[in-house]
Amino acid sequence: MSDNGQVNDAGRSVSCMFCNEKSVSTEEMRIHLLACGNKTDRCPNCKKFIRRAVFAYHYENGCANLDEIDNVRDRAAGTYVVPSAQQATSREVNITRMDVELPIQPNRESNTNQRSNSGIKTTMLCEFCDGECEPAQIEVHRKFCLQNPNRTVNRTTTLTGGSSNQHSDRLQREHPSSDAALIPCEYCQKPIEWRLFEDHTKYCDVRAQEQRQQQSRFVHVQQADNNRAIQCKHCNQERGAPSIEFHERVCQKYDSNTYSTVYTSAYTLSMFPY
């Protein structure tokens, strides 16, 4: 083993636990594992695309929706041991157990590593309210958020001129998926990644309903104003709201003696119908 800690002996090559690709360098394998573990495979049961790092846990636990499996920390050596998860029967790969040093990623949206006196505490970020929660409680927390939409109102922007859910936009902008298909939102027509599409459309639907209710109230008030009769301040005649302004301007120009022309035939014809 050289000074930089890399293994250069071809006879001691290690295989990736996800794709079985071999490498003779622990540094290369470390980089490969980070990339390969974030790729997705389709679950044969729920048909969802699941990250390889949690696929075995997801498959063997009734399609559990966990974002990631906690890394096991080797306190004595100061390293993280990536657990050799049992793969599904449909994914027959050769698995080699190895110890690698994985860097902490504090800027990930999916979890937050908090240092404490007892070590590292892993929490997961709720995509609905941006609240942090322990992995074992995240599913209950998400269900509570979905049953209480008011918890998510403050983290969305108003649907105006094609704008969309702020949280989904931030995830798509900061953590884009290179192989994700973009699906146009039926409300704002913005292309959204499939992994964020369901949450995005939920927020767009809520905003669209609120906008329709506001427009309905505005139309109702406007119709009520149009049907209301207003008395002219000059001649005291009543006119509808849309025509009262023009009528008063006409009345102001002429005095009361010139509002009508009297004909010899016993009837009066008004000059100003407005």
Characterization of this structure:
With 274 residues, the chain is α+β, with helices and mostly antiparallel strands. The protein has 4 domains: 1-103, no CATH class; 105-155, no CATH class; 156-219, no CATH class; 228-270, no CATH class. It is 32% helix and 19% strand. Strands 5-6-7 form a 3-stranded antiparallel β-sheet. A 3-stranded antiparallel β-sheet has the order 8-9-10, with no helix packed on it. The protein has a two-stranded antiparallel ribbon with strand order 1-2. Helix 4 packs antiparallel against helix 5. The chain starts with 13 loop residues before the first strand and ends with a strand. The model is unreliable at 1-10, 68-94, 103-119, 156-164 and 256-269 (pLDDT under 50).
Number of strands: 16
* Distance from first to last alpha carbon: 99 Å
Largest sheet: 3 strands, antiparallel
Count up the domains.
4
Beta-strand level of the residues, as a percent range? 15-25%
Order of helices and strands: EEHEEHEEEEEEHHEEHEEHEE
Total helical elements: 6
What share of residues is helical?
25-40%
Unreliable stretches (pLDDT < 50, length at least 5) are 1-10, 68-94, 103-119, 156-164, 256-269
Q: What's the mean pLDDT score?
A: 65
Shape call: rod-shaped
Rg value: 34 Å
Structural class: alpha+beta
Order of strands in the sheet with most strands: 5-6-7
